[in-house]
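Project channel, design review

CF: Before we commit to the Candidatus Viadribacter manganicus constructs, I'd like one complete example in the thread so the newer folks can see what an input/output pair looks like. Taking Phasin domain-containing protein.
RD: sounds good, go ahead.
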Amino acid sequence: MATAKTAPRAAKTATEAFETFTATSQETVRENIDRGIAAFSEASSFGKQNMEAWLASATAAQKGFEALSARAVAFQKAALENHVAVAKSLMTSKSVQEFTEKQNDYAKTSFEAYVAELTTVSDLVQGVAKETLQPINERVNAVGQLIQTAGR
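CF: and here is what came back for Phasin domain-containing protein:
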C-alpha cells in the first residue's frame, strides 16, 4: 500500500522536475538565441563599418591620384611652354656668350622649378597617404579595442 501512495507522489515529483528542467532549458535556449542574434547584429555592424572605411580609403586615394595627375599635367604644360620660350630666346642670341648665359640661366631656373615641384609633389603624396590610411587605421584600432574588450 505504501507503494500505491508514493507512486503518484513520485510521478508528481518527476513531472515537476521535468517541467522545471524544461522551463530552464527553454529560458537558456532563448537567452543563447538572443545573445547570438545580438552578436550577429554587432558583427554585421562591424563589417559594415569596415566596408565604409575601405570605401573612404579608396575615395581618398582616387582624389589624391587625380590631384597628383592634374599637378603633373600642369607642370609638364608649364615646362613645355617654358622650353618653347627659351628656345625662341636662344635663337635670338647675338653671340655665343649670350647664348651660353641664357642656356645657363634656363638650366638653373629649370632645375630650381623641378626641385620645387618635387618637394610639393612629395608633400602631396604624403598627405594622400595619410588620408588614404586614416580610415583603415581607425578600423584596425577598433579591432584592437574589440579584442581587448573580449579578452576581459
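RD: helpful, thanks. Residues 9-151 form one domain.
CF: The chain has one domain: 9-151.
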